[in-house]
Amino acid sequence: MPDRLTIRETPAAALDLTERAFCLRSESADEATRSVEAVIATDQPVTVYDYRTGEIVDEVLRMDGASIPDRVPMLANHSRYSLDDIFGSARNITVGKHEATGRLYFAEGDPDAERAWQKVRGGHIRDVSAGYRSIKYTDIRPGQSAVVAGKTYTAKGRTLRVTTQWELREVSLVPIGADSRSKIRGDHFHGDVNMPPKLRAYLESIGLRAEATDAEAQTFLAGLTGDQRARADAITAETTRTDPAPPADPPAPAPTPTPPAPTPPADPPEPPPTVEEAARRAVAAERDRVREITRLAGTDVSPELRQRAIDEGWDMARASQEFLGDVRRRGPATDPAQVPYHPTAQTVRPSAINATARSLAAGLMIATGISDPTKHVAHSGRRDPIPTDRITEKEAEIGQRMARMSAIDILRECVRQDTGRLYWDPGEAFDALRAATSGGTLAHVFSTSVYAKIVEGWNEEPDTTLWCDTEDVANFMTQEDISLEGGSNLRVLPRGGTATDAQLADSRETYRIARFARKWTVDEQDVIDDRLGAIMRMPQEMGSAARRLRPDLVYSLLLANPKLADGGALFNNTAVTTAGGHKNLTTAALGAAGLKAAIDAMGAYRTADNAVLNIRPRYLIVPAALQWTAKELLTSTSQGFTAAATAATPEQFYTINILNGAVETLIVDDRIGAGGCWNPLTQKVVAGAATKWYLSAGGPRTIRVAYRRGTNRLPVLRSYSLDQGQWGMSWDINMDIGAAAMDYRGLHHSTGAG
Questions:
Q1: Distance between CA 104 and CA 385 in Å, rounded?
Q2: Which of 196, 281, 275 shows the shortest CA–CA distance to 238?
Q3: Could you give the CA distance from residue 34 to residue 114 in angstroms, rounded to a whole number?
Q4: What is the predicted pLDDT for the residue at 423?
Q5: pLDDT tens per residue across span 128-156
Q6: In angstroms, how far is CA 494 from the centroid of its own chain?
Q7: Which 8-state DSSP code applies to residue 70?
Q8: In angstroms, what CA-CA distances link 64 with 5, 61, 442, 499, 569?
């Protein structure tokens, strides 16, 4: 006898809806109202999967605990992600002692709803599935009994869940149901039937446990979507067409005369197998065939051809011949998209870049703080950072639902996309992942989200170096800036004379770019621990760091005051008539007098042949400590009263601030302040000061920032698989950039020391 105990009710967590399948009856269809009567729910035990615990349980819905709205949407196969998935509504729902019934009303003017209505009318769709939210339930472990709401329940082979309070949320049309007592009204139902062997074998090939019961198989079948659901429906239809009618009862045998005493008979022949034994043998044979074809195909045969061999019932002889011919025809892979750009780098298979993968990526973006995934792109996994695949609004809408998925749930779905199998056991999923999916859908989903977080970090970081000159270069070799010896003034050309050659200067500025990179990894433990937030913070920080590279290089260069090709420091106070003299360095504090003097000095710069350049500063660059002084200098209309009032001169007059608008743009960056600036090249801090300030004319006579051509002046994301024996994904972000001083005449500096 089982143990008898009473178990308290457990409130259900606010999670996704539970789904259980029922059946329709088509003869109750009403043309006038475009409706059909259906049993919405019953108290019959149904096997369901508990997403909270990963456990398969038998669940009983107590009808006295049902919460039924006036109407609920009627969906297509539980697809809750788009308005297009609504076929109509379920209304007039009443709850009896053992079942809840209602009518399904089909929407008018919707082609999809119309097709579904015609299939229901014709008896082709018989099944529905209710989506509901469990509010309170009691779990009874195997071998135990419990009294729930005055009734005794006993759990047998698995946990029995008695749901005492639940809310109906939707009803869906589905190909195959699970509750044998629930049908569209009017169609006689014959009870449970054995699942066709071919259908059973197919379900096992995509993840159904070999020891699963028919009820479990039906539940597994009801949860299929997409191509897998379509294939299962096709097998069901084929089986329905080809199954022979049951034989009629044999006639009663005619009486026969009593025979003479027989001789001892030989061993009797083996009796024919029972229907159940024949079905079991057929399932085993089909399972062996599928397993052998899968083994024979290996990784050399396309998944499409392998699936065709399974679907069309090929024997091993034909499969071997077809597989060999396919391999010979295709030859070696020539598609560059299939060839990794790095020995350990992984690219994404084109089949993995589909709507589901993009929806998963959108969900991961939303879960980690990106509100609009449509503004980002699906990353191809290649070295080229140029976007190739944009997330649509519908995919983003689906992603809103997927945003609640855990890291393990994302992993399961990615494995299903790559292998066609749905793993409920995390250990099995990780085993499959280690073997086959590091460079597949999961890599695509994460790489897309990672790149979006990089872009987010990049956009959030300000860049105060737009006053610099910018150029793209082809490689990492030393580049030379062209300058002319003796200036560039045009000369008078006498009649019949020849123009004087402008010669390249012997001393010219040189520069080169360097690669800056950082790498990070997501391993199995990160996924198991569901550390999605921590995982996605890293690429955001990397994007910010990549954006900081340019100002770090520029301002550390200014503070370091490097030598130019003429032998003089970028900033010095030596007369320009002296070799290496630049006369662009003062010690004046930031104020009216110092700013006027600096502007005057920049306006006096000339070419080597004494041509006036008339350089005007466009940017005033100051540390945070001088920002208010600078704003007052550049924006105030007055410098105060002319003098203190006296008896003799009681009138006072404001002095006009003639520096108002003298410099177009104020730039505040504390890299030049007291804390100094980090130099990415030397990995050291270059000292600054709270009193320093600079003037810049902008453009080519200042600092040049160079990028490698083809990168769009953006960071490049690359994905990798981990070494053999490890599971996980790794990314690195790299940026090819450099900075160098090109000319002193577009810059002026004051230490502000007084």
A1: 50
A2: 196
A3: 10
A4: 56
A5: 888 888 888 898 988 888 899 889 999 88
A6: 71
A7: S
A8: 22, 9, 44, 104, 89
- Are 19 and 220 a contacting pair, CB within 8 Å? no
- The H-assigned helical ranges of 331-461 are 355-367, 393-402, 407-419, 426-436, 441-460
CA dihedral 64, 66, 67, 69 (to 10 degrees): -110
Instruction: Calculate ∠ Cα 44-50-55, nearest 5°.
Output: 100
With tokens 């049993």, the residue in question is 39
335 against 329, higher pLDDT: 329
Query: pTM score, two decimals?
Result: 0.52
The answer to whether the CB of 732 falls within 8 A of the CB of 542 is no
Element (H, E) at 595: helix 592-603
Tokens matching residue 234: 């096709």
H-run or E-run covering 67: strand 66-67
Angle at 507 between CA 504 and CA 513, to 5 degrees: 100
Task: Say how far apart CA 17 and CA 643 lie, in whole Å.
Answer: 80
Residue with tokens 């608008």: 661
Length of the chain: 754
For 81, counting Cβ atoms within 10 Å of its Cβ (0-12 exposed, 13-18 middle, 19+ buried), the class is: middle
Contact 85, 56 (CB under 8 A): no
What are the angstrom distances between the C-alpha of 639 and each of 463, 592, 739? 32, 9, 39
Instruction: At 144, list the tokens.
Output: 């135990």
Closest CA to 23 of 6, 2, 8, 37: 37
Beta strands in 454-500 (DSSP E): 469-473, 479-480
Give the H or E element holding residue 288.
helix 275-297
Q: What is the DSSP letter of 66?
A: E
* Distance (Å, whole) CA 177 – CA 102: 17
- What per-residue confidence (pLDDT) applies to 45? 85
Tokens of 494: 């006498």
Question: pLDDT per residue over 178-235, tens digit each?
Answer: 444 444 443 323 233 356 777 777 787 787 776 666 666 776 776 677 677 777 777 7
Q: How far is Cα 369 from Cα 355, in angstroms, rounded to an integer?
A: 21
Between 145 and 399, the more confident residue is: 145
Beta bridge partners of 733: 518, 717
Backbone angles phi, psi at 203, to 5 degrees: -60, -40
CB atoms within 10 A of CB 408: 17
Strands 71-76, 86-95: pairing is antiparallel
Strands (DSSP E) found in 410-569: 469-473, 479-480, 510-511, 514-523
